[in-house]
Amino acid sequence: MTVYRKAIATFALNVGGVLITEGGGEGEYFTCTSPERGGSKTGVHGDAVLYDIPGSIYEVQVTFLESAAENSKMQTLLNAQVSRETEGSLDFSVEDTGTGELMTGQCIFTKEPDRGKTAEVGNYQWTLHVASEDGWSYSERTVSV
After folding, report:
1. How far apart are CA 64 and CA 45, in angstroms?
2. DSSP H or E segment with residue 134
3. 3-state secondary structure 10-71
4. With contact defined as beta carbons under 8 Å apart, do 96 and 104 qualify?
5. Which pTM does this prediction carry?
6. What are the residues whose beta carbons fall under 8 Å from the beta carbon of 107, sequence distance 6 or more?
7. What is the mean pLDDT of residues 80-109?
8. Burial class (CB in 10 A: 0-12, 13-18, 19+), 138
9. What is the CATH topology of the domain spanning 3-138?
């Protein structure tokens, strides 16, 4: 299992065709866990059996301050998913606009944030499963000088 924790200077996050956020990030606001690609079992005679797991489901966690406007957008999309207004998965894309690294696919919300109130502003962490055949890739960039 690989966990991507990136410092993304400039980014764009789209869920369900809605631009959730773009701009600069501080801290660890985005975490993506890659699917397991294989495994092993030990047979009754002690022999090892290796196998491939054809998977393309990434777990993505996006964190915003509880006071951030992005939470309202995410809650609206989650509510639409729960009420079946979306009729299935949502389009998903996240791009590091500085390097061109991006991931696209289809997603569903799997957990809404735990909520608690304290004297200081806390974080809301949104959890999604993203089906992406290509995973992380680099977009073609044309740099003008």
Report:
1. 51
2. none
3. CEEEEECCEEEEEECCCCCCEEEECCCCEEEEECCCCCEEEEECCCCEEEEEEEEECCCCHH
4. no
5. 0.74
6. 15, 60, 89, 90, 91, 92, 128, 129, 130, 131
7. 86
8. exposed
9. Elongation Factor Tu (Ef-tu); domain 3 (2.40.30)
